[in-house]
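Supplementary Note 2. Why include the ligand at all?

Several targets in our set were suspected to adopt different conformations when bound, so apo predictions alone were not considered sufficient. For every target with a known small-molecule partner we therefore ran a joint prediction. The input for adenosine-5'-diphosphate is given below.
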Amino acid sequence: MILALDQGTTSSRAIVFDKDGNILAVEQQEFKQIYPQSGWVEHDANEIWQTQLAVAQAVLKKNQLSASDIKAIGITNQRETTVVWNKHTGKPIYNAIVWQDRRTANFCDQLKEQGLTDYVYQNMGLVLDAYFSGTKLHWILENVAGARAAAEKGDLLFGTIDTWLLWNLTGGAVHASDYSNASRTMLYNIQTLEWDQFMLDTLNIPANLLPQVRPSSEIYGASTAQLLGAAIPISGMAGDQQAALFGQGCHQAGMAKNTYGTGCFMLMNTGEKIIHSKAGLLTTIAWGIDGKVEYALEGSVFIAGAAIQWLRDEMKVLDSAPDSEYFTSKVSDNGGVYVVPAFAGLGAPYWDMYARGAIFGLTRGSNKYHIIRATLESLAYQTRDVLEAMEKDSGIDLQTLRVDGGASANNFLMQFQADILDTPVQRPQIIETTALGAAYLAGLAVGYWTKEEIKDRWQLNRAFDVQMPKEQRNKLYANWQKAVERTKGWVEE
Ligand SMILES: Nc1ncnc2c1ncn2[C@@H]1O[C@H](COP(=O)(O)OP(=O)(O)O)[C@@H](O)[C@H]1O
Ligand SMILES: O=P(O)(O)OC[C@H](O)CO
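The joint prediction is reproduced in token form.
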């Protein structure tokens, strides 16, 4: 069996997979979202580690498994989220700054004014945006008392969540990341496969903070014996979206998947080729395996399932996210209502750090069901924005879209998605493909699986074919585009 640790934006999960890639057991714990100011999002890095450890321990205990049943551990994680800790005490010096956090937007603008946009695009494959780790790390060094001096003395370590978990699991013995996570820092050169000295100098980041970057499937170290009962090799690591691409079996260039979690992330495998987007996508490292690095094009949508959580937690119009499907069926259409959930600005393909969320088209007859429906629909429209960019950049007309992630369980959403894209949608048996991908990467490295064995494992759960007439699709999407335009540049700083 393989144990996958899936550290997401809103919860930590531990999933045990058997040799056939089936889920044997799952444990999950949500943790605190911290919003210290408008546009800021933080996590307590200790709580991330504690919840992740607790679910790993619980999944073994509740299922009468022992460490010797587990051949390897794979780690997959929310990407970009930035932790800095003291390497002697193991204590974070500040909360983890989450990928959705916009506090460095102004600093990004200054970097743009210095003419860095093209450098970042060519060498990091990224858009110069507050999304990525580099400016978050810079902020911590500049703003946390004593941080700069401690960094210069060599007392601090930086990591994205993969690195933080690996360091804790190995009792501080291993400070490493994998190619896929490193490519999201805006500090890692995806052409030379090295930390980029020019970016480090520009952001004033001492190189001694940085983890070693290693392949996504190899033995990094072992968990310390007291954590899970005995030492277990940790042999797979990848950012959650790249892990999902792997878990969806998109191992060949031209294959793509879309994950509906907190955000929505569409990735297309482009093989060993770096394709620089002209349509607002990112170029990222998919994984490094067997001495070879492969790349992907990515469309990152910041708010997707999080908008449904917002309906549940802030608007209090839902008791649970799955209820959104039932409530949506209470109205026959969106009643002209459009929700643009630009709560953290807009990601691909717009890249507007100053956009904010809005509801359009309200009339006296609008009710909560329309708003719930319009919120679900917004996930599908955002996906179309990204798919159009993907098709332009790759020159590939996608015949079907493979989907996964929590919100892909929503049948209304998946049908609407196929209709709005005018492309059939395929949902696999296992929608926990992020964890599955991490398990595959870990299992490959310890010889639990061969590449051949995992190649054709993908199984269809349900296909959603296009049913909507063209005129209706065009009208809905045109209104969406109009709504998006009106949210842009809302915050003036
Ligand atoms: N049936 C559903 N319909 C709509 N949204 C859902 C449904 N189930 C879960 N979600 C949303 O999906 C997200 C959880 O998906 P998950 O893949 O676990 O995300 P993450 O890994 O980002 O934490 C939540 O934001 C939740 O609101
Ligand atoms: O937590 P998730 O699964 O929504 O993923 C977050 C992404 O990795 C952010 O880039």
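Residues 8-11, 261-262, 305-306, 308-309, 321-322, 324-325, 405-407, 409-410 surround adenosine-5'-diphosphate (ligand 1) (CB under 6 Å). The mean pLDDT is 95. Comparable summaries for the other entries are listed in the accompanying table.
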